[in-house]
Amino acid sequence: MKKTYNSLLQGESGALKRALYKSMGFDDEALSRPLIAVVNSHTTATPGHANLDELSRQVHMGIEAAGGTAMEFGTIAPCDGIAEGHEGMRYILPARDLIASSIECMVRAHRFDGMVLLGSCDKIVPGMLMAAARLDIPALLVNGGPMLPATYKGKHYDGNIVTESVGWKQRGEIDEAQFATIENLAEPCVGSCAMLGTANTMGCMAEALGLMLPGTATIPAVMARRLRAARQSGRRIVEMVKAGLTARCILTHDAVENAMMLLMAMGGSTNAIMHLQAIHREAGLGELPLPAFDEMSRHVPQVASVYPASPYDMADFDEAGGVPAILRELRPLLHTECLTGTGESWADLLAHMPESPRREVIRPLEEPFAEASGVAVLTGNLAPLGAVVKPAAVPAHLYHFEGAARVFQSEQEACEAILSGQIAAGTALVLRYEGPKGGPGMPEMYRPMKCLEGMGRAEDCCIVTDGRFSGSNRGLFVGHISPEAYEGGTLALVEDGDRIRIDIAAREVTLMVDEQTLSDRSARFTRPEKAVADGYLSTYRKNSLSAAQGAVVR
What is the pLDDT of residues 207-240, one digit of tens each? Predict the structure, then answer.
C-alpha cells in the first residue's frame, strides 16, 4: 500500500478510518494525499453566503490540482440583517464563538492536515479566524465578496437605504409606492453588504493578518476574479501543508498590529476591535487590551474613506486597490516582515505595489483624510474600561458634543420615541442592558441608529450604549460601554436629564454628575432581570467576558 500523508490513516490502526472514507468513494490514492477540510458556511438564507457553494467547487478544483484531497463540512451563518430588530440579534455575536468551537470539534476529530474557510458575514469570518488561531494548522480564508451597490435616483446606496427610508416615509418625503421601489432595488445581487460594515471589514482584517490571499478581500461577489481567487486558495493551501506553514506562523502579535493599523487607516467597523481581541487570545498571545487600540489610533491616520464614511462603496474600494493599496501607504508604520499565506512577507508583496489609481478613495500617508484614525477608544467615568466610536463616520461638528440624556431600557422603546418625533435636538439617547451579559448577546442597536438618520436627527443627537453598532453607522454612536449596565457599570446609573459630554479629540465620554450622587444611585441600584430562554443565550450570559475583553466565551 502507498504510504499515506495523513498520519491518522497509516497502518493497521488507520484501516477502519480508511474504510469509512472509502465508503464515500475515496481511494488509496486520494487518502495518501494531504486531507484538506473545506469549511463551508454556505446557506441560501444569507445573501453573503449564497455564492459559497460555487466558490467551494473552485476551492476543490484547486486542492485536487495541487495534489491534495478535499473533504467538506458545514457550519452556521446567521445574517445580521435578518436578525436585526428582534430577539434573533441576541444570537449573532454568540454565534461567533459557537462557529469557532464547531470547526474545532470537526477538525480535531478528523485530524485534517489543513483547511480552507469559506465565509463572508459579520461573525462568521471572525469565528473562522478564531478557529484557525486555536487549531494552528495551515489555513486560508476565502470570502464570498461584497455585493454591488444599489442605485436610486442616480445615487449609490447599500441595503441600509431600506431602514432609512422608513424615516423618509414617516416624514412624508416618499410614499408607499416609492418605499416599495426602494425595497425591491436595495439589495441588487448576492454578496456581503456593499459598504464597509463588519462583514467587509473582517474580510480585510483576514487579508492584513495574512490568512487570505492578498488583493482578494474586496473582489465583488459576482466577478470572475472571485472564482479564480477561490481556486488559487485551494492550490495554495496544499503548498502550505507541505511547507508546514501553520496559522500561528502567520498570526503573530505583529500581524495583529498590522490588522489594527489597517482598521484605523480605513475607518472600518468598530466590531472589529473585539474580534481582533478574540483572535489574539485564540492565537495564544494573551489579552489585547483596549488601551492598545487607543494608543494606535493616535498615530495612525485615516488614509481611506469608504461608505458609510464617504460616497464610495466596496466596488470603488476594490477599484482603488483594496487592502494592498492601503498597506502600501502604511509601509513606514507596518511590521512588513510578517509572513502571509503566500509564504512571502508583506515587504516582498508591497515592494512592487503601484499607488492607488483612485486617490479620492485611498490617499497618500502624507495627505490623509484625517490625522487621527477612523476608529477610536473613549474612556471616562461613563466607560472606565472603555467604549468605541467611529470618527470616520462622525460629522465634524459632533466631535465635541454635550446633551441631555434620554434613557431607554429597550431598542423598541427607543425606536418608537424616535419615529414619533419625541427626540429633540441635542439629546443623548442611552440604550442600556444590551451588553454581552445584559442583552444577553450584545445585540446591535441598528434600528435606533437608522431611525435617527431617517428622521434627520443623526446630525444633532447621539446614542451611547453597552450594545454594539453595525459598521453601517453614520453619526455619533458610542458603543461597547464597559463595564456594562448589567454588571453595575455607570451606564446603569444615568437618569433622564443628566448631561453627557463626548469629546472625540480628547478620547473622553463623561457623565456630568458628581461622585456623591453617583455613589447614592449605586447604593440603590437593582439589576433588572430579562427573561432568557434555556439554551445557548443562557450559557453565553454565564460564560462571556466583557466587551472590553472581546466578549469571548470562557
Answer: 999 999 999 999 999 999 999 999 999 999 999 9
Phi, psi (deg, nearest 5) at residue 250 = -100, -40
Q: Computed from CA positions of residues 380, 381, 384, 387, in that sequence, does the dihedral angle turn out positive or negative?
A: negative
Task: Enter the C-alpha cell of residue 97.
Answer: 464563538
* DSSP single-letter state for residue 321: T
Give span(s): CATH 3.50.30.80, the chain. 376-549
Catalytic site includes residue 470: yes
The sheet that has 69-74: what strands, in order across it? 69-74, 35-40, 114-118, 139-142
Q: Regarding the domain delimited by 376-549, which CATH topology (the fold level of the hierarchy) does it fall under?
A: Glucose Oxidase; domain 1 (3.50.30)
pLDDT of the residue at 198: 93
Rounded distance, CA 550 to CA 544, Å? Answer: 9
- On the question of pLDDT at 4 being above 70, the answer is no
**Helix, strand or coil for residue 331?**
coil
Tens of pLDDT, residue by residue over 21-39, are: 999 999 999 999 999 999 9
Other Cβ atoms closer than 10 A to 45: 11
Q: Which helix (H) or strand (E) holds 401?
A: strand 400-408
d(CA 167, CA 10): 64
Check whether 380 has a pLDDT greater than 70. yes
What is the secondary structure of 103-168 as a DSSP string? Answer: HHHHHHHHT-SEEEEE--STTHHHHHHHHHHHH-S-EEEE---BPPPEEETTEEE-TTHHHHHHHH
pLDDT score for 1: 41
Cell numbers linked to 510: 463623561
| Interatomic CA distance for residues 190 and 182, integer angstroms | 17
DSSP string, 456-521: T-TTT-EEEESSB--TT--SEEEEEEES-GGGT-GGGG--TT-EEEEETTTTEEEE---HHHHHHH
The CA–CA distances, whole Å, from 412 to 97, 243, 419, 446, 462 equal: 27, 53, 11, 11, 17
Amino acid at site 468 = R
- Enumerate the CATH 3.40.50.2300 domain ranges in the chain, comma separated: 33-149+189-350
Superfamily of domain 33-149+189-350: Response regulator (3.40.50.2300)
Question: Residue 115: pLDDT above 90?
Answer: yes
- Cell 466587551 locates to 547
pLDDT digits (tens, 9 = 90+) for 449-496: 888 888 888 899 999 999 998 766 678 999 999 999 999 999 999 999
The rounded distance, in Å, linking the Cα atoms of 35 and 49 is: 24
Mean pLDDT of the region 76-83: 92
Q: Which residue of the set 56, 470, 482, 544 is catalytic? A: 470
Average pLDDT, the chain: 93
What's the rounded Cα separation, in Å, for the pair 51 and 56? 9
Cα 374 to Cα 372: distance, rounded to the nearest angstrom? 7
Give the three-class secondary structure for 385: strand
Which tens digit of pLDDT belongs to each residue from 516-531? 999 999 999 998 888 8
